[in-house]
Design a protein that fits this description.
single chain; alpha+beta; Jelly Rolls; Proline Oxidase, Chain: A,  Domain 2; 2 domains; ten-stranded antiparallel sheet; IPNS-like_sf; Pro_3_hydrox_C_sf; Aspartyl/asparaginyl beta-hydroxylase domain-containing protein; Pro_3_hydrox_C
């Protein structure tokens, strides 16, 4: 399902500057799927199933509890409680991505399909060098906008700059039919006159693609593999390409190089990130002994 703006909230009613500064100052800790981000990529649990700020694992819960980060951010906590219902809320995270990239992947691959997962993002500040993408295109989120993102399809994110890009990620779960507005609280003040737009990207000729694959085949090995994954993952933000085309390019390059080790590694990476994985399964890009 394509991403869309559900509505916009006026952030001028909330002094979030100090809360954002606090969240940016929190030391990054190891977390789930950490190695699929490059640069400064940080996810802080604001509300979760345990109330433990070090718990970064998404899972179903009947009680979404505040962590120490929620308790430290008075205005942000007021913002969340005013505008969003907790009935079906599973987790709230603050996400910071600076001078970095989250490579194309799918979430909830390992979870059942009967339950309806509904993920929304709220941009807490503007950043002209920050972009999101999925199978439908590349787009930017502006401060106060509430976006639905289908985390079950391939998607990625990038911040080409050095400035903060703080977002809220709210995960809801519904057992029965619902509409977008079911996530909002009774006191929510939402502007629904919003329009979803995509970034216009440059075309990339098939000849250029062949040249990229050929050049990659000459340098790809176990020492360059991770760097190549991140480099080629950025192309679709600039050129009109499928979000996960980078994995097909890498597999083709490995086959041109006739490198069975890299072929297996690349095929396994694509399978894990966008095709199939088990609950609790991990995949280390630089682990060549698995």
């Amino acid at each position: 399902m394509p991403p869309r703006i559900i509505g916009k909230i006026d952030l001028r009613d909330y002094n979030l500057t100090r809360d954002i500064e606090h969240l940016n100052s929190v030391t990054k800790q190891p977390e789930e799927y950490d190695e699929f981000g490059q640069g400064h990529w940080k996810n802080l649990s604001i509300y979760n199933a345990s109330g433990d700020a070090s718990d970064t694992q998404y899972r179903s819960t009947d009680h979404c509890l505040p962590t120490e980060h929620a308790l430290a951010c008075l205005h942000l906590r007021e913002f969340i409680h005013t505008h969003f219902k907790f009935d079906n809320l599973q987790m709230v995270r603050a996400r910071s991505l600076v001078d970095g990239l989250v490579i194309p992947h799918r979430d909830f691959v390992e979870l059942g399909q009967k339950t309806k997962y509904f993920r929304v993002f709220v941009a807490l500040e503007d950043n002209d060098e920050s972009f999101h993408s999925d199978e439908h295109g590349v787009f930017q989120m502006r401060a106060g906008e509430v976006w639905y993102l289908d985390a079950g399809i391939s998607h990625a994110a990038v911040n080409f700059g050095l400035h903060s890009r703080m977002f809220l990620c709210l995960d809801f779960m519904f057992e029965d039919a619902f509409v977008d507005t079911d996530i909002f609280g009774a006191q929510a003040a939402i502007d629904f006159d919003c329009h979803t737009t995509y970034i216009e990207r440059q075309p990339l000729h098939t000849t250029h693609v062949s040249e990229i694959i050929s050049a990659t085949s000459k340098i790809i090995n176990r020492h360059t593999f991770k760097d190549i994954v991140f480099a080629l993952s950025k192309y679709h933000f600039i050129y009109d390409l499928p979000v996960s085309s980078c994995y097909d390019w890498i597999i083709s390059a490995a086959r041109q190089a006739d490198n069975l080790e890299i072929i297996d590694k690349a095929v396994g990476l694509r399978r894990y990130l966008i095709e199939q994985r088990d609950i609790g399964q991990r995949y280390a890009i630089n682990d060549w002994n698995a």
